[in-house]
Specification:
Number of strands: 8
Largest sheet: 8 strands, parallel, barrel
Distance between the termini: 40 Å
Strand content: 5-15%
Mean pLDDT: 93
Low-confidence stretches: none
Order of helices and strands: HEHEHEHEHEHEHEHHHEH
CATH topology: TIM Barrel
Radius of gyration: 18 Å
CATH architecture: Alpha-Beta Barrel
Bound molecules: flavin-adenine dinucleotide
Shape: globular
CATH class: Alpha Beta
């Protein structure tokens, strides 16, 4: 399916942040097959009524579903009217390839991109995976900024440190490089302990990073799922949360309720503390986002 490019370009997300109200964003991943596309369409239809300020679509670094990111961005934008922010990673791409992907988004009227280095599918980056000097997120930001000065670029930040960074200080210097190269905001890796986010924001401000830092929140669906995800991304799981999940034993609905309850408490606390919004890792499921929206409306 190829959607006709919309004539009206999207509004840069940086302008939305400048309005001073907290923004709600949702993250999708591109489905692998047509059945997944149909399921995503249904999820998007259900989520339209909570009116996210923007939605992002991940990019499969190193293979598989790459083209689908563009297709899903077009679908979510043109069929559902969402402001979309496709992700774009450097892994295994030449500068010309990154330019081609970004150029296609731009032609469609997309004006927001999440610029990333990416991981290889099997984990850590391998020699030869980074081409043409595109080795870090900051290189992607610099390239996109040069090609399309009016793009609004988001970048990733790590409240509990990127797993490959030798220290918090080094990671902070590298985040500063991304912002200095032209990123307009930071979305964080998921975390379950808000204190990690607050410490991270303090360190960013002390380092002179003054763009919005959006907390990334993932409602837990199962202990197995969250243990796998946190072991890959380096986020810590508070004992109190683990105990609650364990107490639910194998009852998925109760675990889901525990996950929603934890995420709701996190978001309420973050917004009360002045966070510029929140980004939900929804794993293409509408239910947790809808339940959270209802909880926050109260
Ligand atoms: C919000 C968010 C969205 C994501 N979306 C995707 C996605 O769609 N697809 C996907 O594959 N992955 C995605 N990821 C995962 C991400 O690709 C990985 O975490 C990846 O390992 C790092 O990407 P980055 O852009 O943050 O890298 P970078 O900012 O380049 O950092 C990677 C590592 O290199 C270090 N570093 C950076 N610059 C330098 C330098 N100049 N010299 C030395 N060291 C340096 C950093 O400290 C860090 O340890 C996402 C992560 C987040 C938080």
């Amino acid at each position: 399916m190829s959607a006709a490019p919309s004539l009206q370009p999207d509004r840069p997300i940086s302008e939305l942040f400048a309005m001073g109200r907290p923004l709600r964003s949702l993250e999708f991943y591109p489905p692998r097959d047509d059945a997944g596309v149909e399921a995503l369409r249904q999820t998007a239809a259900a989520l339209r009524r909570i009116g996210p300020d923007f939605v992002s679509i991940t990019y499969g670094a190193g293979g598989g579903t790459r083209e689908r990111t563009g297709e899903m961005s077009a679908l979510l934008r043109d069929e559902f009217g969402f402001t979309v922010m496709p992700h774009l990673t450097a892994v295994n791409h030449t500068r010309a390839e990154v330019a081609a992907v970004a150029g296609e988004h731009y032609r469609r009227g997309i004006r927001n991109i999440m610029a990333l280095r990416g991981d290889l599918p099997n984990g850590s980056p391998a020699a030869g995976a980074f081409k043409d000097g595109l080795c870090f997120g900051s290189d992607v930001v610099a390239l996109l900024r040069e090609l399309h000065p009016d793009l609004c670029l988001g970048v990733a930040g790590y409240p509990e440190k990127h797993p490959q960074a030798p220290s918090f200080e080094a990671d902070m210097e590298n985040l500063k490089r991304k912002v200095d190269a032209g990123a307009s905001f930071v979305t964080t890796q998921l975390f379950f302990d808000n204190d990690a986010y607050y410490r991270f924001v303090d360190r960013c401000r002390a380092a002179g990073i003054d763009v919005p830092i959006v907390p990334g929140i993932m409602p837990v669906l199962s202990l197995k799922q969250i243990t796998r995800i946190t072991s890959m991304c380096g986020a810590s799981l508070p004992d109190r949360l683990v105990r609650r999940i364990e107490a639910a034993e194998d009852q998925p609905e109760i675990i889901e309720a525990v996950g929603i309850d934890w995420a709701l408490a996190q978001i309420r606390d973050l917004l009360a503390a002045g966070a510029p919004g929140y980004h939900l890792y929804i794993l293409n499921r509408a239910r947790s986002a809808l339940t959270l929206a209802a909880g926050l409306a109260a």
